[in-house]
Amino acid sequence: MAALFFLCGLVAEGQEITGNILDSASLQPIEGVTVCVMPGNLYGSSDAGGNFTVRSFPQSAVLLFTAIGYQPARVSEAAFRANNSIIKLSLATLELSAVTISPRAGEEFKAISRIDITLRDISNAQEVLRLVPGLFIGQHQGGGKAEQIFLRGFDCDHGTDIGIYADNMPVNLVSHAHGQGYADSHFIIPETIGSVNFKKGPYYADKGDFCTSGYADYQTLNVIPGNMVKTEGGMYNTFRLMGMFNLLGEKARDRQESWYASADYRYTESYFDNPQHFDRFNFFTKYYGPISRNTRLSFSASSFYSKWNASGQIPERAVSEGITCYYGALDPNEGGRTSRSNVNVQALTTLRNGDVIKNQLYYSLYTFDLHSNFTFFLTDSLNGDEIRQQEIRNMFGYKGSYEHNGYIGSLRLNSEWGFQFRGDATNHSLLAHTRDRYIVLENIKLGNISEFTSSVYGNETLRLNEQFSINAGLRLDQFYYGYKNLLASDTLYRGTGLYKSTVQSLNPKLNIYYHQNENLEFYLSLGKGFHSNDARSAVAVNSGMSLPGAYGVDLGTVFKPVNNLVINAALWVISLDQEVVYGGDGGTVEFSGKTKRTGFDFSARYQLAENIFIDLDLNYAHGRSVHDPKGENYIPLAPVWTSSGGISYAAKTGLNGSLRYRFMGDRPANANNSLTATGYFVTDLVLNYSKKNYEVGLTINNVLNTKWKETQFETITRLKGEAAPADGICFTPGTPLTARISFTIIFK
């Protein structure tokens, strides 16, 4: 069917308006610009190369170009063609009245995303993740470890059920020493982020592994507006220095070239009684420009290193009995160090007929060394239960796609086919029982992991008329797992040697869009994804259980009931089959049954006045294990009610800021809900005074000085000297009232 659509499109193309849209300041292409041809209200949208195509009207037609953060442009078709079919848009202050709902299928979240990236002050890695509406995070090792992520009723752990990308390069690490899908995004320097593309659910053929509850892809700037040096300092001996510099001159701008570099150093002792001594250094550089008339190249490289001490998780009873204080520690040897260096090359080629070819190659060298103690003296009453998780990894991959725009008669057909490959190889992945960090008492797991994934997919999007579009996709993923066990005492395997397994997953997708006009769209999404598992569990059990299916349905809308209000809302269901879970902290394989989650998402962005914006995200999820008895079928730590929002102000005088909150309600901490993970409500304040060449800022986290628990777990523990273990909540305290100031110099 796809081949038939493609051939019909080749022979049925009619007269069209094609063109290219550029930023007037940087001369770089702009993606996602809505193009309206009037009369007739025929819509189009620009792609990653700034190119667009719409069917032609008589020469009396007028083209209207609109994009968030840009001044609308209106030009006659004749004038547009006379200007070599190029339009340049100028930056403007954000006006929600100018925001249009994109007619491009699959962009139902773009309006909310672009509004947020324009309004939010993003100055740390945690705020990067919070750009996704409904996504909540928790840190339980002091800032150096990847955050625990919650989305759509999933406790995604450190990334198990959410795909995280940076410039289309996967952040999630498969078969990680600490847990499947571990996604440490701290190598991203916040000031380099230009946009975030996110979608929820398993409905997208170009996305595979980890994209169960959804995905987020953080896109770095192709061009920076100017050179920048920023210093920050604050409570708990917190310090940060960041610089970002253009490496090419003005002549490069005329050639549509850009190359910049950014570096970031951060230190803090943090608010814990056990000083964190957290050190992190980041470096990032990116080149973007044409290498031929039709091809644009993006080359980026980054490196990041971090080390820290941690207070870890402490039992509630240890605080209530006075054994330690709320911000105390029971094992001062917790902490770790990690690093990641990346190279990422992307090429986008636009053919003469408007077809687009994308190629990407990436490589990462990664190290990880973590020391934790969750149960204290439960197993070893003499030395304690401290563990060490360690790995060295090489990750490499390729992504390629071909996109063709054609017609079947008067019906527009967009066809996309892609191939993806990824390989991960770790050396001496270790789980060990230790004391005082580096004294090894016993190796629990030791081996080399090799995991390779190849994927092919096809996407067909047929525009039936000016209102209806249908997207049908199909994706096939082939996994190869290999684990070379180096530890004879590991009883999970039959001895030392190489253990292998292969498994496939075929996943259909269907999305239906009804685009009423520039103010209203409805969508229905159905699709199958999968929950992947660690190679160490995949080779130890039946391979048919290694990729359990994830089935989802979304019914949603994007609309503007009034000019200054944008709303995105959806009802959704996600069912997850039997899964095999490898416990990185214990080196065990566990089975969990089928689960079902239902809920709704609601996001609103409202412009109260010229300089005042209000945003609200409200999310509900009801999750249960399907086959367990009622009352014993709760999903531990699954979020139920969550909400975030705030008010932002930006005056022409330079004064700007925001007051924001985030709320997570109480949720079950175990399967029978006998233990509760207590909810929280926390507020943050940001104030800036911005001028052309400098900015002064003040950030206050937890303005109300709320005492809250950032992460919580049911854990059986035994403290030193206790005769018997106890089951209860262990937690990491959230940030108390914390203030920091910043000063930024901006120059050409």
Strand content: over 45%
Number of helices: 7
Distance between the termini: 54 Å
* CATH homology group of the largest domain: TonB-dependent receptor, beta-barrel domain
Net shape? globular
The CATH architecture of the largest domain: Beta Barrel
Averaging pLDDT over every residue, what do you get?
90
CATH topology of the largest domain: Maltoporin, Chain A
User: Can you identify the CATH class of the largest domain?
Assistant: Mainly Beta
Structural class: mainly beta
Low-confidence stretches: 1-14
Largest sheet: 22 strands, antiparallel, barrel
Helix content range of the residues, please?
under 10%
Tell me the count of domains: 2
As a whole number of angstroms, the C-alpha radius of gyration is: 26 Å
Number of strands: 43
Structure in words:
- The chain is built from seven helices and 43 strands.
- It starts with a helix and ends with a strand.
- Helix content is 6%, strand content 55%.
- The protein has 748 residues and is mainly beta.
- β41 and β42 (726-733) form a beta hairpin.
- It has two domains: 2-92, Sandwich (Immunoglobulin-like); 110-747, Maltoporin, Chain A (Beta Barrel).
- The protein is globular.
- It has a 22-stranded antiparallel barrel. A four-stranded antiparallel β-sheet has the order 3-2-5-6. The protein has a four-stranded mixed β-sheet with strand order 12-11-14-13.
Keywords:
748 residues, mainly beta, Immunoglobulin-like, Maltoporin, Chain A, 4-stranded antiparallel beta sheet, 7 helices, 55% strand, disordered N terminus
